[in-house]
Amino acid sequence: MKVTVVGAGNVGATCAQRLVEGDLADVYLVDVVEGLARGKALDLAQAAALVRHARRIEGGEEYAGAEGSDIVVITAGIARKPGMSRDDLLAINGKIVTEVSENLRRVCPEAMIIMISNPLDVTTYLAAQVFGTPRERIMGMAGGLDTARYQTFIAGEVGCAPYEVEAMVLGGHGDSMVPLPRLTAVNGTPFEELLPPEKIKAIVERTRNGGAEIVSHLKTGSAFYAPSAAVVDMVQAVARDEHRIIPCAVQLQGEYGLEGLFLGVPCRLGASGVEEVVEIYLNEEEMGALHASAQHVRETVAAWENLPKG
Ligand code: TXD
Question: 47, 157, 223, 277 — which has fewest CB within 10 A?
């Protein structure tokens, strides 16, 4: 398996490291900043003898190196600073993602695409416009990360390991995301039986602000360890044909009563990409929250379409 990672910044470089050191894929790292991808790739390659893997990693500014990629991971763009919402990145990252997608389409039009750059649900839509890829092969990473944050906060409160929490966070990657306490359990015990409503509410709120909390500590950038782990989890499900359900931003085609837009829903991932959009039962309140999140994504797409281009 060959993966091209576009953007050799915090998420991209960490993602590249996890992919080669986890023996999942050979990697080509590309960045617009001269020398950045080449230097980081060389450094990562020199760790191979110590970490003991035989994966190839190269980097550069040119897209030619992306030829033959099975998957491309797009992290190019700018990250949030304190006080910024993900939507504030729209004007800049929308342009960057469009340009990057055009470059990639020339060299690896058949590659599967995993979008990371924010605002996620909109950038995934923009890349899909450029690539014209069937929806099975283009997805955005957010739900996996938001779910991992939710699991972490629950584990901290309940006193278990994060992976013992069964949970799923749906919806857009932003304030309107939809954690689902009713469907959350810890080793089979319903979450709502384990903690009082006010504690659950606080965990849901902290999950919604999970990214901003980290931005407020770091001040100069946003989270990247957990985001890169969430990307690699998706790549692994595809590379190993795991048929595993991970919430991803995919184009809805009538599922959950929604059409056209990209939004986080449970997807079964395997070698062909999104094998199935899994429709779980949502009650009225949960469905309402998902539709409100969809509305927010639609408004952000409309804001992009109304922006002066050029
Ligand atoms: O859950 C999620 N989807 C996310 C998304 C979780 C974490 C970060 N999320 C978003 O990913 C974040 O809001 C940003 O939009 C991207 C990348 O975040 P990262 O923390 O990696 O940002 P960096 O460190 O600034 O790296 C971005 C790199 C940087 O090296 C730039 O030079 C490069 O992107 N860049 C480009 N590369 C190629 N081509 C172009 N045009 C380009 N423009 C910038």
Answer: 47
Q: Is 6 in the pocket of ligand 1 (CB under 6 A)?
A: yes
| Residue 176 tokens, joined | 């309107």
If one counts every other C-beta atom within 10 angstroms of the C-beta of residue 45, the result is 16
Full DSSP string of 203-254: HHHHHHTHHHHHHHHHSSS---HHHHHHHHHHHHHHHTT--EEEEEEEEEES
Tens of pLDDT, residue by residue over 67-89, are 999 999 999 999 888 888 888 89
Ligand 1 binding pocket includes 45 (Cβ within 6 Å): no
* Domains of the chain, first to last: 2-140 (3.40.50.720), 143-305 (3.90.110.10)
Q: Ligand 1 centre and the CA of 12: distance in Å? A: 7
CA distances from 33 to 8, 59, 76, 131, 268 (A): 9, 11, 11, 24, 36
> Model's pTM, two decimal places?
0.97
